[in-house]
Amino acid sequence: MRLSDRLFIFIAACLALLVLAFVDAAVRVRLAEPALEARATLVRQLELTDLSLFTEARYTRHLSQSDIHTAFQDHPNSFDHFPSGSLVLPPSHLRVP
Amino acid sequence: MKKLILRQKYLIDFTLSSLKRRLAKNLGLLLVYTLIVFLLASVMLFTHSLRREAGIILESSPEIILQRLVAGRHDLMPAEYLDRIGRIRGVTRKAGRLWGYFYDPAVQANYTLMVPRDRDLGQQEVVIGAGIARTRGVDVGDFLTFRSSDGRAFSFRVVDILEADAELVNADLLLVSEGTYRDFFGIPADRFTDIVLQVRNPSEVRKVAEKLTVLLPDARPILREEILRTYDSIFSWRQGIVFVLLGGSILAFVIFAWDKASGLSAEEKREIGILKAIGWETSDVIRMKFWEGSIVSLTAFLLGFILAYLHVFYGQAALFEPVLKGWAVIYPSFNPTPFVDGLQVATLFFFTVFPYTVATIIPIWQASITDPDAVMR
What we know:
The structure holds two protein chains of two kinds.
Chain A: H1 3-46, H2 58-61, H3 92-95
Chain B: H1 2-21, H2 23-57, E1 64-70, E2 73-75, E3 77-78, H3 80-85, E4 91-97, E5 99-104, E6 109-114, E7 125-128, H4 130-136, E8 143-147, E9 153-161, H5 167-170, E10 173-175, H6 178-185, E11 191-192, E12 194-199, H7 205-215, E13 219-223, H8 224-262, H9 266-277, H10 282-313, H11 321-325, H12 342-368, H13 372-376
Parallel strand pairs in B: 6-10, 7-9
Antiparallel strand pairs in B: 1-2, 1-12, 1-13, 3-11, 4-12, 5-6, 7-10, 8-9
Helix pairs in contact in B: 1-10, 2-8, 2-10, 2-12, 8-12, 10-12
């Protein structure tokens, strides 16, 4: 078989996988709707406000509920020492040039 | 038409043979290129998926949360504030929430203790999140013992484990009765952690918040739209930060690829000279190099994206777990819902495939318009 034919077969297989990924995503999003609804119901019932993604500190656990002065809440010069704190967005007024 | 296709096929055959002659170098390039696309696509898919999911499920969080601030810090809310709020037009429900944090020295993890409004729990009963169950190795019927704020030991029987499917919001939750919560933390009956308000008309939420700040100057209202905005911007920021961190490796790759693509080796120059000497036109040489750039970049994009999809949506984005986990002990086990943004994928395709292809053509054009004799010497 010619090299170009082998390449075409390879690229076609990769493109098929790419299309399959999009189809898989669409199907799984449709299938996940009841689970998403169940999560939303839990949030409604327990009146939750945040994702339990960063449980290392209280102001990273409840990002939307933390003090206004977070992450410098303990002292103005006390820099944030949790790894996820270094990734969290500073307040919007500090980002305005 | 058939002739044109055949011509291109011959050119591709020749390009592939040429790539095969420098197999190790080109495979190395393809590997690094694929890795870069994989990392960029993984970050993009993961953050977009989390952002969408957070937006959908936090849409059900309370419309307004009222926190009391004392000396700039969050303080307990007196129950009489519920009466002081009175009857604000548009507010359909107002209630005090009880929740807080508990550090468990046994596993060095932080839990979120809450009093649920939707279920009645006995004095010694507890409902835990799947993250706590996994970390502590407990199941329904087992007992958990914690030491309260005044040093007393409280034993709780696990009566239920919250759905593992919803770990993204409940991994560290510990639900207890109101009486137990107050006894455990020593919180008097006339105090709440904060107050939640339900507003019938979404357009009135801001007005209600304004009225609340006038009525209760020491309180801070947090609106649902602010919660949603927080998560939207956090994941954008996280995505941005990771891109910045990746920036160094991307730049290194750009330099490597640019050098490989734009700086022609003596061997390549000789090859072009020979091709021109045996009758190849400049356009054929450029087409050949166009195919070389396209094959390498398209292959890297396709492989990188497919691997990233598998990593994020079938492998629980395992490579990102140490970054997101930080120093936390409890980390939710979850498979992100595969929300894929076609525009983002198209942007990634454009910025990964297009520059490399262009970078391969320009130097070839310069070399192929020169005299074959001069190039071969």
